């Protein structure tokens, strides 16, 4: 459990393929030229004492413990910064070196508290370990005179403590903040004896630019930076490797445990997605799993105005099954359906869609990917032949120019953003396409070469104009197109983009982007080497979301930027398993592996495996379910791990649909907004309470491992199995590994996946099958999955959601670093210290026109509804555009979003809503009603009666 197991050896200097041979303590070792002597010593089986060196940071050479003797070299060079040379003879253990190391350690200890027995890192302290290694037995200098032993602690951060009295100024925290995280929030203040780590300009950690990623805590070799959970609970006694349940990066963590309690989550250095890094959510915000709001007992009620009644699992499942069968008997088999979760495991999602298809007897299954990345699946399937991103995250380190469209990785995918920033600091060029000025436009040592600040809703116009520049100026990769792409579709597309109406000059009035800027960005992308495109919900959540994804694929193919490292089309999936939920067949028209339900051959395979006939007709999408509920033909819903009332657009329409249904079964951790309208509540399990797998944005399948018993007695997969059995369709699994075996048997891209294989190699990227037994990091090498890449014309059509005199501003939405999606998890952690409310960002010009000042309450009204938020006046948004997040249900962000959606997939147009903003003095009518409903539900939960307020 010692930290040294995670931070073992000095980072090698820049190495080459040439090998050199040297001798260390009489042992001959052969290493790559440029390898540090410290690393070579490790290869020889020799551990050199150290304090400032780790295997995750560049060598620094400040602690002076790793000194060695080298024949022919004067003095005692630091082994961590000295590169190996042919024929070197190195000695790491001599009487003189021992004296020097003891003297150095004595100086450290002379200004360090000797409270090891009561220190929270006792038993996990590198300083303590090194004192033992060098044989320090006495400190001659004492504590007389100046010292730092009484310096005050900084307790401002809710997750860790900074105790400067224990700082040895090794610089590891500062270097971790710079090299690993890229925030540059820490520095060394003062000189000589007065040197100490400072957050900002001697700010507290909470007042500084620190983003609480934990890299500094992880790097600290003493108790200077310590997790408060470790201070409270003591050192862990065992650990298990699992996968984070927040965003689509899919970071690997060691859950360090004491009994069944988590002491801390430590980023796993062998995690292929995160390489030992983390963000504030994954590193610290796991306390929701044991929050007092967790629901642990099944509950039922006949009407949503009845008090909840706690019942046994058997009664709850029996009641749900009987209600579903009653509805089907009266209204037909298509009158019920299910929604799978992008937060649950692959195995759990697979079972829900299987239950709908095999037990319900229809294809009325959908997932939250409908409202985020369904255009990705459609657009990439049509053009490239596979509904997923093309690269591994590490591929970005080979990129020469990076284009980010409609995404803010620093907030939504922060660990990957740190890796991307590292590449940008190395010299890669950056193009940001976004209506807002995000952290990726300008941050320490990173600045976009072009920020195309387009008007929301004009993505397609911009991408067609970029293509116009590339084709008209002969910048396309003609050889790649001729070899890899369909020539007829390319010719048609080429003719389309060359039309004068697609030029940057013609599109400038539409996009708001000056033609010269767009031309410069297009030339940079096409001519600067490896070009990689990363995009997010600012691409997909539009009326032309699918068209824009197609446009991105067109651009990548035209420039030859597909099928190797450093390039590609890279959708940044928002939730931990949104990719997996799609892979597992959560859409109403597709079985697992993206195969259409009308394909008789595919359907027969599933019918033989599942033992029942399956419907060949696509089922209802989520918006169709709502409409059908209101017309009386869809009356029962099984909703696992999704809060559709908070997350889906046009909230009042969603609530009306919920109230029209006769049986809603919600399976979740908390009594969320959707559960207010439920008739059966089945308690869910957190990622710490289950076994399974998640699939991240780079198609990486990683293990989730159970570290504590399920608080409700059942993991989510067991609940679905029990419900299916109660419905009369038997499912028999003893462990999620058996579910994965079934997935692998029926899904060609998962054929080679098993728990045994994942435990052996750590993770796999699909396709993993006979053709690629070790997985597929880079897609479309040599040829596209569909054969020849297909170009498709991207005609721009203006959204129906237009500004008017009554609604003159455009509202767009997004996320913030400290929170995740609807906030159900992060709002139940200390992350609320950074973001306690959703706010409306408005440009100073628009604020002045409306007499709005910073922190004023403002009403936001659209065609769909109105809500009230506090204002943040900022130039991060452009005039005519306002912006908010959606992490707090009382904010009602989706009360004002409309039911406009993508033409191909019904993905909602969250990013474009015409609104008016004015100062107000009281909450909106919707917010008043929300408060009443929330209060009513609390009384119903306590078994009290309450006046119905739902219809207001």
From TrEMBL:
EC assignment: 1.17.1.9
SUPFAM superfamilies associated with the record: 2Fe-2S ferredoxin-like (SSF54292), 4Fe-4S ferredoxins (SSF54862), ADC-like (SSF50692), Formate dehydrogenase/DMSO reductase, domains 1-3 (SSF53706)
Residues annotated as domain 2Fe-2S ferredoxin-type: 18-96
GO MF term list: 2 iron, 2 sulfur cluster binding; 4 iron, 4 sulfur cluster binding; formate dehydrogenase (NAD+) activity; metal ion binding; molybdopterin cofactor binding; NADH dehydrogenase activity
Signal peptide: none
Coiled coil: none
Pfam families per UniProt: Fer2_4, Fer4_7, Molybdop_Fe4S4, Molybdopterin, Molydop_binding, NADH-G_4Fe-4S_3
Cofactors: [4Fe-4S] cluster; Mo-bis(molybdopterin guanine dinucleotide)
Cellular component terms per the entry's GO annotation: membrane; oxidoreductase complex
InterPro entries, per the entry: 2Fe-2S_ferredoxin-like_sf, 2Fe-2S_ferredoxin-type, 4Fe4S_Fe-S-bd, 4Fe4S_Fe_S_CS, Asp_de-COase-like_dom_sf, Formate_Dh-H_N, Formate_DH_asu, MoPterin_dinucl-bd_dom
EC primary class: oxidoreductase
SMART domains per UniProt: Molybdop_Fe4S4 (SM00926), NADH-G_4Fe-4S_3 (SM00929)
Keywords: 2Fe-2S, 4Fe-4S, Iron, Iron-sulfur, Metal-binding, Molybdenum, Oxidoreductase, Repeat
Residues of the 4Fe-4S ferredoxin-type domain: 158-189, 201-230
Domain named 4Fe-4S His(Cys)3-ligated-type: residues: 96-135
Name of the protein: Formate dehydrogenase major subunit
UniProt organism field: Glaciimonas immobilis
């Amino acid at each position: 459990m010692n930290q040294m197991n995670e931070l073992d050896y000095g980072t090698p200097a820049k190495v080459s393929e040439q090998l050199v041979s040297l001798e260390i303590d009489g042992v001959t070792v052969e290493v790559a030229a440029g390898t540090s002597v410290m690393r070579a010593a490790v290869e020889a089986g020799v551990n050199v004492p150290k304090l400032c060196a780790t295997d995750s940071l560049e060598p620094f050479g400040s602690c002076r413990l790793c000194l060695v003797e080298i024949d022919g070299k004067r003095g005692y060079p630091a082994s961590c910064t000295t590169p190996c040379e042919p024929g070197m003879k190195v000695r790491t253990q001599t009487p003189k070196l021992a004296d020097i190391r003891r003297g150095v350690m004595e100086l450290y200890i002379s200004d360090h508290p000797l409270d090891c027995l009561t220190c929270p890192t006792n038993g996990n302290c590198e300083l303590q370990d090194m004192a033992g290694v060098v044989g320090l037995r006495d400190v001659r200098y004492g504590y007389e005179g100046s010292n730092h032993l009484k310096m005050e602690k900084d307790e401002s951060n809710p997750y860790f403590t900074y105790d400067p009295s224990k700082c040895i100024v090794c610089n590891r925290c500062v270097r971790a903040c710079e090299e690993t995280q890229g925030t540059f929030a820490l520095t060394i203040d003062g000189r000589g004896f007065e040197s100490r780590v400072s957050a900002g300009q001697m700010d507290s950690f909470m007042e500084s630019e620190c983003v609480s990623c934990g890299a500094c805590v992880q790097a600290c070799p003493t108790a200077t930076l310590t997790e408060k959970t470790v201070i409270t609970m003591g050192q862990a006694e065992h650990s298990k490797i699992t996968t984070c349940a927040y965003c689509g990066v899919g970071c690997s963590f060691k859950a360090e445990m004491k009994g069944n309690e988590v002491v801390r989550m430590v980023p796993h250095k062998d995690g292929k997605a995160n390489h030992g890094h983390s963000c504030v959510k994954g590193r610290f915000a796991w306390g929701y799993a044991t929050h007092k709001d967790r629901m642990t007992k099944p509950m039922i009620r006949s009407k949503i105005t009845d008090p909840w009644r706690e019942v046994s699992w058997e009664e709850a499942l029996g009641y749900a099954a009987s209600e579903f069968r009653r509805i089907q008997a009266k209204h037909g088999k298509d009158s019920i359906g299910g929604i799978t979760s992008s937060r649950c495991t692959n195995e759990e999602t697979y079972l829900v869609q299987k239950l709908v298809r095999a037990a319900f007897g229809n294809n009325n299954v959908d997932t939250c990917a409908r409202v985020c990345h369904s255009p990705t699946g459609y657009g990439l399937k049509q053009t490239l032949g596979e509904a997923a991103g093309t690269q591994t995250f590490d591929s970005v380190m080979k990129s020469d120019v990076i284009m980010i469209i409609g995404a803010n990785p620093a907030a939504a995918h922060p660990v990957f953003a740190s890796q991307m920033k590292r590449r940008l600091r190395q010299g890669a060029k950056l193009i940001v396409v976004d209506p807002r000025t995000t952290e990726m436009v300008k941050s320490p040592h990173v600045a976009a070469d072009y920020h195309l600040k387009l008007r929301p809703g004009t993505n397609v116009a911009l991408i067609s104009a970029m293509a116009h520049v590339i084709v008209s100026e002969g910048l396309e990769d003609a050889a790649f197109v001729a070899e890899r792409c369909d020539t007829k579709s390319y010719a048609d597309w080429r003719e389309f983009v060359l039309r004068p109406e697609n030029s940057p000059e013609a599109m400038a009035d539409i996009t708001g982007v000056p033609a010269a800027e767009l031309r410069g960005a297009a030339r940079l992308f096409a001519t600067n080497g490896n070009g990689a495109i990363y995009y997010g919900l600012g691409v997909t959540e539009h009326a032309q979301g699918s068209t824009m994804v197609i446009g991105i694929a067109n651009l990548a193919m035209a420039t030859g930027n597909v099928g190797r490292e450093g390039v590609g089309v890279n959708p940044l999936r928002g939730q931990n398993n949104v990719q997996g939920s799609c892979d597992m067949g959560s859409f109403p028209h597709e079985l697992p592996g993206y195969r259409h339900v009308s394909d008789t051959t595919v359907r027969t395979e599933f019918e033989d495996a599942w033992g029942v006939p399956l419907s060949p007709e696509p089922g209802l999408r989520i918006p169709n379910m709502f409409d059908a509920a209101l017309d009386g033909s869809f009356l029962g819903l099984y909703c696992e791990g999704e809060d559709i009332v908070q997350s889906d657009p046009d909230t009042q329409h969603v609530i009306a649909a919920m109230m029209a249904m006769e049986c809603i079964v919600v399976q979740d951790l908390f009594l969320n907004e959707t559960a207010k309208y439920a008739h059966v509540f089945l308690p869910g399990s957190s990622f710490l309470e289950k076994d399974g797998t998640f699939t991240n944005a780079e198609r990486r399948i990683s293990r989730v491992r159970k570290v504590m018993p399920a608080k409700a007695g059942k993991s989510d997969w067991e609940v679905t199995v029990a419900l299916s059995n109660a419905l009369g369709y038997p499912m028999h699994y003893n462990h999620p590994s058996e579910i994965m075996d079934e997935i692998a048997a029926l899904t060609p891209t998962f054929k080679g996946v098993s728990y045994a294989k994942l435990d052996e190699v750590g993770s796999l990227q699909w396709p993993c099958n006979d053709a690629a037994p070790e997985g597929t990091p880079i897609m479309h090498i040599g040829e596209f999955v569909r054969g020849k890449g297909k170009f498709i014309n991207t005609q721009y059509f203006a959204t129906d959601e237009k500004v008017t005199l009554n609604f003159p501003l455009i509202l767009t939405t997004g996320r913030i670093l400290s929170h995740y999606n609807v906030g159900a998890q992060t709002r139940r952690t200390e992350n609320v210290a950074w973001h306690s409310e959703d706010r409306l960002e408005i440009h100073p010009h628009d604020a002045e026109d409306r007499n709005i000042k910073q922190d004023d309450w403002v009403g936001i009204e659209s065609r769909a509804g109105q809500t009230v938020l506090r204002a943040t006046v900022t130039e991060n948004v452009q005039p005519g555009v306002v912006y908010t997040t959606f992490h707090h249900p009382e904010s009602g962000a989706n009360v004002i979003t409309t039911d406009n959606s993508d033409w191909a997939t019904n993905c909602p147009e969250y990013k474009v809503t015409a609104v008016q903003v004015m100062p107000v003095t009281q909450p909106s009518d919707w917010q008043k009603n929300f408060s009443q409903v929330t209060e009513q539900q609390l009384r119903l939960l306590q078994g009290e009666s309450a006046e119905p307020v739902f219809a207001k």
